[in-house]
Write a structure and sequence with these properties.
Blueprint: E1 4-12, H1 20-38, E2 42-49, H2 54-63, H3 67-84, E3 91-94, H4 98-113, E4 117-127, E5 132-134, E6 152-161, H5 167-176, E7 181-182, H6 184-195, E8 202-203, E9 205-206, E10 213-214, E11 222-223, H7 226-230, H8 232-235, H9 244-249, E12 254-258, H10 262-276, E13 284-287, E14 290-292, E15 295-296, H11 307-314, H12 316-325, E16 333-334, H13 337-367, E17 370-372, H14 382-400, H15 404-425, H16 427-430, H17 437-458, H18 463-472, E18 489-491
The structure holds 5'-O-[(L-methionyl)-sulphamoyl]adenosine.
Amino acid sequence: MKEKYYITTPIYYPSAEFHIGHCYTTIIADAIARYKRLSGFDVFFQTGTDEHGLKIENKAKEAGVTPKEYVDKIIENAKDLWNRLNISYDFFIRTTDDFHVKKVQEIFKKLYDQGDIYKGEYKGLYCVPCESFWTETQLVNGKCPDCGRDVSVVTEEAYFFKLSKYQKKLEEYYETHPDFIEPVSRKNEMLNNFIRPGLEDLCVSRTSFKWGIPVTFDEKHVIYVWIDALTNYITSLGYPDITPEFKKYWPADLHLVGKEIVRFHTIIWPAILMALGIELPKQVFGHGWLIIDGGKISKSLGNYKDPREYIDAYGVDAVRYFALREVPFGSDGTFSEKALITRTNSDLCNILGNLVSRTIQMGIKYFEGNVTNPNVSEDIDQDLLDSTSNLQAQVSEKMNELKINEALECIFDVLRKCNKYIDDTAPWALAKEDANKNRLETIIYNLLESIRVCALFLQPFIPETADKILTSLKVNNRDFDNVYTPVSRYELGLEKPANLFERIKED
Ligand code: MSP
């Protein structure tokens, strides 16, 4: 039986149209999901939208529509964006889905019945645009630390989750599960800034707005944010019913989240799961932000374009490649259209595209598209052959550590070696003499084999381009089990391949 792998993105707020920052997390999750599928795992990849709350209620009011109408339109666009980015999610959950609403109500009632949720009074400093309560010490110059706007004091009757009860258990859990939070700097931040100073009980209901899931036993309350949002990862599998899907896929193997919500996923979420008596996710990875001109790309600042404009202009794989390659995973990185163009030209066009088209054209020109291996080898071949045969181990090591940009670097190193191999062996010179025919064919064959192996490993990252390459090489066996089964004869046909990437003008 296949081993399972359950990976999630955060569920995004559909308070405004999605930007390249949302694409960033989703593209990374997609690349990991595809990598695991090709490696033989039974993958469940979930994404979705977090649709309740005051901010969306207000936005809808401003737009003169109902909250549901407001989010429906954004979600239609989000799904279109994910399709255009070739996001291979298995399930898209919306927190307004009937099944989710019902299951969240059951979970809330269960926690209340067992004493983990109680009724109290909430007084706090609240930032409306960010939908966040802050403590006095978290404010920056008296303003919201996220968006810099005013906060207001809010007092209301509310239900609380006994988060404080789980402080010790969380500390113990972190200690016995050293891989639970990655990168490790984020784990230290959670321990030192939040858990050790003491956890306060968490407000989990509101009476001041209506757009949320009602508490079944106290209807003036709606469930506030985290119990509604975080439980998406289990309601989709049927929980609180212990369904075959739940048994199979839970616990999640990886929750991929931006650094600003690591706290919710590594403190609140585990505590809720401990209270429910179910296993914790194996790992939460908190990645950095894509920033523009030194600031976060933000819906409230409105400093971004629709990502579909970049796809239209440069192609889906240019956008995917940039997200995966440019920023060391875990750190912040800068997004700019200029950097996207430079990256596309230098890697996708110069290194990959040119290599593939040069090699196929030589196969057509010198061998009418039929290339086998006459095995006329020379020492100069060894470096390329070794790098190609080490690639699987290298990519696998990097992907297991979620060093995605480094996995891509390994593949591009081999592609660079192919280009150098062409320069060093100078096939056009060999082609001048009939006596060199077998040596020439060996060279083209070696190149095709290396390109095939690289294209197989590029599938998770730039699936459309990898498919084009593998289709022109007529490779049908595409999972990672068959990477090192050599193709005995390449039948390339006689048609000149279309360019994979056109050079983009840089100005
Ligand atoms: N709804 C909550 C998450 C609930 S999960 C149970 C939320 N939504 S959000 O719309 O604000 O999206 C947050 C996520 O989008 C971040 O954690 C991150 O994964 C991604 N990003 C949003 N902006 C981003 C950047 N500028 N850069 C990188 N990722 C960004 O928080």
